[in-house]
């Protein structure tokens, strides 16, 4: 159980976790002083095939390897334990049940901002958390600002902040594909995560690692 009052969630499949994810949480920490950022890997999603998922324990182990030198980062298996298809609002409700007064931040990419109003129970979600959305470059920033203005016209209690990042075009899909062919993962994941993937032969059995 997460007992700290204020919490920042970094959700996703983390299949595998990579340096782009790390840059997002580091930006949240440096820009907004958030010091309780929790990686929360999910069990499954609507749009990913489970046979391309590394086992839960391996995804958690890789996150732990990546964050070991960052005291403000941790990992939670809350959504994995819940099992099945889990929605963000389910997690928010669970966290609020533990502490109704806690402040919850949720980190998303600029691409996710485009679709956040389509998420399950979006009205409740937008009124329950402060979203931190990563932007890369002026075009992305301008587009994100337009989306945020539109969201505010429909959700007056929404709170969305911009999270500035350097350009970072890293894809978990590409990492899995490279790993399946035994290629180097240098510059995509930390050295420890790359070694873990190699030693545990993760993604090697995937003929179509997308």
Structure keywords:
alpha/beta, six-stranded parallel β-sheet
Please give a structural write-up:
With 210 residues, the chain is of the alpha/beta class. 41% of the residues lie in helices and 15% in strands. The chain has 9 helices and 6 strands, in the order βαβαβααβααβαβαα. It has helices spanning 19-32, 56-67, 78-82, 88-98, 110-113, 122-126, 137-154, 172-180, 191-199, and strands at residues 7-12, 37-41, 73-75, 104-109, 130-135, 159-164. A 6-stranded parallel β-sheet has the order 3-2-1-4-5-6. The radius of gyration is 17 Å and the shape is globular. The two termini are 33 Å apart. The relative contact order is 0.18.
Number of helices: 9
Mean pLDDT: 89
Q: What is Rg?
A: 17 Å
Taken in chain order, the helices and strands follow as EHEHEHHEHHEHEHH
Uncertain ranges: none
Helix content: 40-55%
Gross morphology = globular
- What class do helices, strands and sheet pairing give? alpha/beta
- Strand elements, count: 6
Bin the strand percentage. 15-25%
Write the layout of secondary structure elements.
Layout: E1 7-12, H1 19-32, E2 37-41, H2 56-67, E3 73-75, H3 78-82, H4 88-98, E4 104-109, H5 110-113, H6 122-126, E5 130-135, H7 137-154, E6 159-164, H8 172-180, H9 191-199
Parallel strand pairs: 1-2, 1-4, 2-3, 4-5, 5-6
Compact summary:
This protein is an alpha/beta fold. It is built from nine helices and six strands, in the order βαβαβααβααβαβαα.
């Amino acid at each position: 159980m997460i007992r700290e009052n204020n919490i920042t969630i970094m959700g996703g499949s983390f299949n595998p976790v990579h340096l782009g994810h790390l840059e997002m949480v580091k930006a949240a920490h440096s820009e907004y002083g958030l010091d309780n950022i929790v990686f929360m890997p999910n069990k499954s999603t609507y749009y990913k095939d489970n046979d391309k998922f590394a086992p839960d324990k391996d995804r958690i182990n890789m996150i732990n390897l990546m964050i070991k030198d960052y005291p403000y980062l941790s990992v939670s298996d809350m959504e994995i334990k819940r099992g099945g298809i889990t929605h963000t609002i389910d997690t928010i409700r669970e966290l609020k049940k533990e502490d109704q007064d806690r402040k919850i931040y949720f980190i998303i990419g600029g691409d996710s901002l485009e679709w956040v109003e389509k998420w399950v129970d979006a009205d409740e979600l937008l009124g329950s958390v402060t979203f931190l959305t990563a932007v890369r470059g002026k075009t992305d920033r301008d587009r994100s600002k337009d989306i945020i203005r539109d969201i505010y016209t429909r959700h007056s209690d929404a709170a969305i902040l911009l999270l500035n990042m350097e350009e970072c075009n890293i894809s978990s899909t590409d990492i899995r594909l490279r790993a399946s062919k035994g290629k180097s993962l240098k510059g995509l994941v930390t050295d420890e995560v790359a070694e873990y993937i190699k030693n545990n032969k993760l993604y090697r059995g995937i003929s179509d690692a997308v």
